[in-house]
Design a protein that fits this description.
Elements: E1 3-7, E2 12-17, E3 23-31, E4 34-41, E5 50-56, E6 68-72, E7 75-82, E8 87-93
Antiparallel strand pairs: 1-2, 3-4, 4-5, 5-6, 7-8
């Protein structure tokens, strides 16, 4: 499954992750002049779900293709809060 992001000002749909298995519940924040995308990922399903993140430049360049694993322990989804310089990611656990 491909996790895609549509940025209106770029007017293009482009992949953030093309990793094997499913990616769900994506959220986007903006800080420090770039976008931060977080999602639930099942590529390491055994049976844990993971939270992955990737940075995206203003021009749509994905700086972390397929993302980087941030948390790998029964996570369900992430929420994000952001300001001009800081970003906060909160993760819901399955317990």
């Amino acid at each position: 499954m491909i996790l895609s992001l549509l940025l209106v000002f770029i007017n293009a749909d482009f992949p953030i992750s093309t990793a094997y298995l499913s990616q769900h519940y994506s959220v986007v924040g903006f800080a420090n002049g770039q976008y931060y995308v977080f999602w639930t990922d099942l590529r390491y399903y055994s049976p844990d779900r993971s939270i992955f993140g990737a940075r995206v430049a203003n021009d749509g360049t994905v700086l972390d293709p397929d993302g980087k694993v941030l948390i790998r322990d029964r996570t369900i989804k992430a929420s994000v809060g952001f300001g001009s310089e800081n970003i906060l990611v909160v993760v819901q656990d399955s317990c």
